[in-house]
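Q: Please design a sequence for this.
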């Protein structure tokens, strides 16, 4: 068969992306789905159940004009995968337990590959493993995994962003607020951040804010954030961070967005939010028990905080603190004062931006989705 015939055969192949959280869906699957579709692959996005889910994942993935399956609960997902007969030629796991990837690949008689930031059980059984940074690949190799660093998909996701800039003044000091993807945490963050912003404006009336909300948040929620004076926006992260001087965020994929946009930030986890933070596994089940569940979850997370490593991705990748992390009982007054101090520290801002750019460059920055698509073509041909 000639080269043209081979291209047609590849164009008909179906790749299934297994995704289990809003970070992987928005930061990894979004640019990859676009690239795979442009390369002629049929794409299935299979959403696995996740304690961090927002409830909007199916709606989001459905807007990409691809087949979407799930989420339907771990037990039902397992049996649905066991049935096979979906015509899947390759399974690419982007998040979740590899048990599901192995189950689906076995039922479909297809290859299983994985893109991951770290080790997970079953990775040695994958036909190929890719990661974002050389440091991540080195960690995987120490565990016997032949992993290739091909770049960070989050950097590509930023290039897919669109929307208008939320900033109104060129001269203002601009602070981007990341209140989280889960409605429960955003609800708790609304009053907390409102108080922080009020105090900070008293310290410096030249500060401007923008709160990045989910593109699928309700009009009522947008109005609540607007009335609180927090300038809500559903524009893409790239558009918001392009002119930002600093950010206030929680741990998560957004810290990688800050990394690739080289925006200094404070990573804050107030203990007041603990009961709204999801916990997985048996501990997650116990935290859902009536009456005592909330107290149990708070106890578990307080204990974890005492023995924690770095929470933000830039710090974990670098192995040292790049973005300051504030965990504990954080009063709005104290946080506002800390933001004011960092916002006034020009030397810290410049050194932080320089370090973030250096770390980002180690991931080859943009182009990960194209490189990953090329590797998948090699596997599937």
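A: Design:
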């Amino acid at each position: 068969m000639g080269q043209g015939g081979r291209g047609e055969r590849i164009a008909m192949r179906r790749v299934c992306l297994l995704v289990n959280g809003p970070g992987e869906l928005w930061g990894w699957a979004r640019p990859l789905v676009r690239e795979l579709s442009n390369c002629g692959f049929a794409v299935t996005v299979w959403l696995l159940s996740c304690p961090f889910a927002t409830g909007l994942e199916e709606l989001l993935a459905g807007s990409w004009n691809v087949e979407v399956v799930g989420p339907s609960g771990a037990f039902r997902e397992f049996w649905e995968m066991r049935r096979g007969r979906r015509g899947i030629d390759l399974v690419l796991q982007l998040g979740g337990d590899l048990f599901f990837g192995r189950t689906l690949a076995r039922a479909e008689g297809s290859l299983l590959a994985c893109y991951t930031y770290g080790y997970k059980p079953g990775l040695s059984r994958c036909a190929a493993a890719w990661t974002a940074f050389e440091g991540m690949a080195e960690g995987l190799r120490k565990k016997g995994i032949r992993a290739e660093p091909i770049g960070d998909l989050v950097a590509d996701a930023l290039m897919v962003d669109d929307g208008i800039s939320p900033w109104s003044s060129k001269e203002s000091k601009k602070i981007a607020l990341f209140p989280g993807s889960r409605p429960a945490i955003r609800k708790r963050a609304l009053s907390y951040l409102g108080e922080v912003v009020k105090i900070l404006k008293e310290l410096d009336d030249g500060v401007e804010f923008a709160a990045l909300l989910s593109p699928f948040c309700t009009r009522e929620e947008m109005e609540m954030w607007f009335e609180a004076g927090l300038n809500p926006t559903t524009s893409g992260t790239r558009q918001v961070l392009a002119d930002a001087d600093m950010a206030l965020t929680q741990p998560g994929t957004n810290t990688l967005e800050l990394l690739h946009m080289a925006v200094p930030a404070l990573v804050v986890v107030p203990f007041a939010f603990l009961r709204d933070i999801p916990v997985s596994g048996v501990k997650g089940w116990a935290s859902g028990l009536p009456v005592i569940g909330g107290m149990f979850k708070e106890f578990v997370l307080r204990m974890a905080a005492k023995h924690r490593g770095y929470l933000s991705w830039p710090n974990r990748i670098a192995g040292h603190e790049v973005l300051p992390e504030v965990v504990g009982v954080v009063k709005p007054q104290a946080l506002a004062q800390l933001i004011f101090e960092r916002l006034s520290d020009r030397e810290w801002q410049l050194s932080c931006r320089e370090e973030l750019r250096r770390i980002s460059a180690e991931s080859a920055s943009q182009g990960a989705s194209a490189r990953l698509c090329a590797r998948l073509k090699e596997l599937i041909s």
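Q: Thanks. Anything notable?
A: The chain is about 50% helix and 15% strand. The first helix runs from residue 3 to 11.
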